[in-house]
């Protein structure tokens, strides 16, 4: 029984250390970084929504519109990824 108690205690310690690390990471974000993440998450959600709509539509005109919209969202995501990698390079 004591052995099980020790492993639970260790798991709790590891979990607490990980949550502290995550909270420090969140605190280190600047307001502009928070905004960038919010926008990127919104674009990812929008792309998921568009893909679901594409799977369910039979109208060719609507499908073409959704394809163009998906391409636009993906190009915006690519811009985010490029600018993020440039920021990481500058910080080195």
Structure, described:
It is a single chain. This protein has about 90 residues and is an all-alpha fold. It has one domain (about 1-90). About 90% of the residues lie in helices and about 0% in strands. The chain has helices at about 1-25, 30-55, 60-90. The protein is elongated and about 55 Å long. The model has no long low-confidence stretch (mean pLDDT about 80).
List the helices and strands and how they pair.
Elements: H1 2-27, H2 31-56, H3 60-91
Helix pairs in contact: 2-3
Number of strands: 0
The biggest sheet, with number of strands, parallel, antiparallel or mixed sense and barrel status, is:
none
H/E element string?
Answer: HHH
Number of helices: 3
Category from helices, strands and their pairing: mainly alpha
Count of spatially separate domains: 1
Shape: elongated
User: How much β-strand is present in the residues?
Assistant: under 5%
| Helix-residue proportion | over 70%
Rounded to the nearest angstrom, the distance between the terminal CA atoms is 50 Å
Poorly predicted ranges (pLDDT <50, ≥5 residues)? Answer: none
Rg estimate, integer Å: 21 Å
Mean pLDDT: 81
Highlighted features:
elongated, 92 residues, mainly alpha
């Amino acid at each position: 029984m004591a052995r099980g108690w020790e492993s639970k205690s260790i798991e709790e310690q590891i979990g607490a250390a990980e949550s502290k690390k995550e909270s420090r990471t969140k605190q280190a974000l600047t307001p502009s970084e928070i905004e960038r993440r919010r926008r990127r998450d919104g674009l990812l959600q929008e792309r998921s929504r568009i893909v679901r709509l594409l799977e369910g539509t039979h109208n060719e005109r609507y499908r073409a519109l959704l394809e163009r919209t998906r391409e636009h969202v993906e190009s915006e995501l690519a811009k985010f990824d490029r600018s993020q990698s440039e920021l990481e390079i500058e910080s080195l």
